[in-house]
Fold:
Amino acid sequence: YTKFATGLGGQVQTLMAYSAGNSQKLYAIAATTLSVFDVSTAGPVGAATVTGLTNAIWEYINVTTAGGNYLYAVNGVDKPILYNGTTWARIDASSAIAITGVTTTSLSNITLFKNRVWFLEKDTLKAWYLPTSSVGGAAQVLDLSSIARFGGHLVDLDTWTIDAGYGVDDNLVFMTSNGEIIVYRGTDPSSAATWALAGVWKLGSPIGTRAMLKYGGDLLILTYDGLLPLAQSLQSSRLDPRVALSNKIQGAIAQATTSYGGNHAAVGWQILYSAKNNAVWINVPVAEGQQQQYVMNTITTSWCNFTGWNANCWEIYTDEPFFGGDGYVAQAWTSTYIDDTANISTNALQAFSYFGSRGVKKYFTRARPSIFTNGQPQIFVGMNVDFEIADNSAALSFSGSIPGLWGTGTWDYASWGANLAITNNWQGITGIGYAGALQLKSASSGLQIEWASTDVVYQTGWAGI
Structure:
């Protein structure tokens, strides 16, 4: 990652992307300063655009009406804030654009459904909606108290696109703190002719208030059961956990949710989809300023674990993933192949294999990894045996030169990077066992690395009986 905007003065807990035609802006809210900053361009931030907030955990949407293009945000404590591309306004019953019928400081979450802005009322089972194509007006209530038979309060809401046999349509999905999924379809909640309850289902409890994400025509939900696609989950997730996208790492997810789940307002839990990188990831808050991400390749549905991105929150801006850290906003997954100023370190352990000889003991002696790289990274290769997954090797260090960047490096002084070239040197390994799994570690800075294959040399011993 690369630090993009600095000087925010505290943990950045919310990022909000404003998009109106060709205009795109990114705003950050920091916990210590409790202010909104414009972080649309790289460098130190200027003066805050909104000050005097109570907390830095906000939910937002973009909405367009005849009056303009707006960014609308709520946090359940302060008055909602509304941005029209030029100025910010705080919304209550007497503001220029007013909401009546509900105390606006109690509005804790927000979404847009069929030309209506919808809100959740904090710590209740009530949802509120505005007139169509409007960012103000008389709010009407949809009380789910008689629907949610497990009680609790509403945590999140979003739209779910589904073809139920009569054409593709959007449904409105509510999720309670006790894991109930309540789905409505229709257009006008005040009319029984155009509004109906589609169903109520029970899943695991959600983790955090950012527990839902639109993903193609489906809706992903982050719960104590894992990361679930709603369409399959409503049919069989609790009976067949294999429908969870996180099924392959269910042990790791279960351990993370147990250790760091906290309450439903836990800061840091979030799902993000980066189409440019073919990845979906779950942000896991280990501690303040210390996070990790479970990352799924959307092509292979394989998972890995990212560390070093100490992200409290995420947002996609100009098609790139950005995160909020301690006093800064960073652009992630950059092509610099360096974590700010730190080396990139990797640790991969392949699946265990009997190498075609099950029941035969093997003495592993050498391995030759084939690595495509444009430099000389530090590489370690070893062999774990008989399903031992512990890493007993020493940490690697790297102090090589960083290739120059075009337009930045000085001619005749900068070291220019080369194209990817293959390196395949033999390394000694040790290990005696029936099954083995190759472990490869690397340390580098400013270098690209691709692991293509590995050759292994071993001697066979006696066969077990």
Notes: The CA atoms of residues 156 and 460 lie 58 Å apart. The first helix runs from residue 230 to 236. DSSP finds two helices and 35 strands in the chain.
